[in-house]
Amino acid sequence: MGNANSGTKERRMPKRIILVRHGESEGNVDKNVYTTVPDHKVQLTKKGKEQAKKAGELIRGVVGNNNCKLYFYVSPFLRTHETLKEIGGAFSSSEITGIREECRLREMDYAKFENTEKMEEFKKERDRYGKFFYRFPHGESAADVYDRVSGFVESLWRDIDMDKIPHSANDNLNIVIISHGLTVRVLLMRFFRWTAEQVENLTSPKNAEVRIMELGHEGEYSLALYHDVQTLEKWGLSPEMIVDQKQRAFGPKVDLDKCFFTSYFEKNNV
């Protein structure tokens, strides 16, 4: 990833990049909602708002109170904006340095939902074909989402390099990205250069689930500084992917037995 741009100025990386899926939406509860409400206008349920509020409390606990600064990127959909509102309630206005709506963080386009039975057929066809490359008729594939997410990530680095994210050298800066399940997985794929095959095995984040990347060894982001091995396994990361996360966090001399194999033996009572 590197710590500097093409000039002489050193890139000041955010301490954390925090990915959040929106809270439970009406569409998560009843798929028939999509037959009458456009995807981008689907609202959170009461439970979804409570989930988002708890996500804000969790993030509050992670970033602490010492010079804490947060900059939000949010998908343009209503349910992500409602999630942002609940999360933002955990912070003061002086701690939030900016909020930017980012269209490239939107949900994958499944095209029209009017015929729910037909949509289920498409999803079964996708499972047979391969989830990453299958494109819904008149919609998108995960590969299409990857293309636009890649553009967003490049824009994020430029925003950092050009000081478009307000913060001082002493700030505990955190980027919070509020998006959707598939988009979160593809963001992780882009950040960590995972393959299409590796992403096929990942589980989707639960509603309002928080996945935290934190700066580790030599300025490399890692999921392993906050999340334990069991959590990474539950998310579908392979042993090799977990080792990579540990090495990003602690360096190449990390004890690989403690990274993965110890937890494997404990989990299986070996």
Helices and strands, with pairings:
Layout: E1 16-21, H1 26-29, H2 46-63, E2 68-74, H3 78-88, E3 96-101, H4 116-129, H5 142-161, E4 172-179, H6 181-192, H7 196-200, E5 210-215, E6 221-222, H8 229-234, H9 239-250, H10 256-267
Parallel strand pairs: 1-4, 2-3, 2-4
Antiparallel strand pairs: 1-5, 5-6
Helix pairs in contact: 2-3, 5-6
Describe this structure in words.
This protein has 270 residues and is α/β, with parallel strands linked by helices. The chain has two domains: 16-215, 3-Layer(aba) Sandwich (Rossmann fold); 227-270. 42% of the residues lie in helices and 13% in strands. The protein is built from ten helices and six strands. The chain has helices at residues 26-29, 46-63, 78-88, 116-129, 142-161, 181-192, 196-200, 229-234, 239-250, 256-267; strands at residues 16-21, 68-74, 96-101, 172-179, 210-215, 221-222. Strands 3-2-4-1-5-6 form a six-stranded mixed beta sheet, with helices on both faces. Helix 2 crosses helix 3 (78-88) and helix 5 (142-161) packs across helix 6. The longest helix has 20 residues, at 142-161. The chain is globular. The chain starts with 15 loop residues before the first strand and ends with a helix.
